Amino acid sequence: MADEGNIITDLNPAPAPNGADEGPAAGIISQYVKDLSVENPNAPQVYNWTEAPQIDVQFNIGAQQIDGDIHEVELKIVAAAKTSEGTAYAVDLSYAGLVGMRGLDENTAHAFLFAEAPRILFPFARRIIADSVRDAGFTPLMLDPIDFNGLYMQQLAAAAEQQGEGQGAPAGNA
Known about the structure:
174 residues, Bacterial Protein-export protein SecB, 34% strand, elongated, 2 helices, disordered C terminus
């Protein structure tokens, strides 16, 4: 049994005066569909096609400062299913979230905007894609989970490598 005299009861620091919170913070304020296009250009003939379509999915992440500590992070996802007979469907989604950040250093803020915020937004965008494809009359397209942090780290490493190549090796021998 623990001695109650040794139990620490105040695990949280005292709040700032008047409820002010000045510590570093980041979070999603809201999220929304910015643009959605669903095309089923070959209906109703497409429902008689027997060839399995080739699925192509492309995505992009963008971020922009809106006002002070508020940024918009946008996931752009384009999915298309095509066969030799033509396009079965195409879905183009821009899903965005407003992100509030304060007190973060530049590297942490950048990582939140391009790795953590997309990770939070992606499941909602994934559901919209699946529902849109289903509503177009096809089997829902369930996008695989994406390791946004891993992709972010790969891009940082590639950028660092590219900067290293740009400086070049010293010329000549000493």
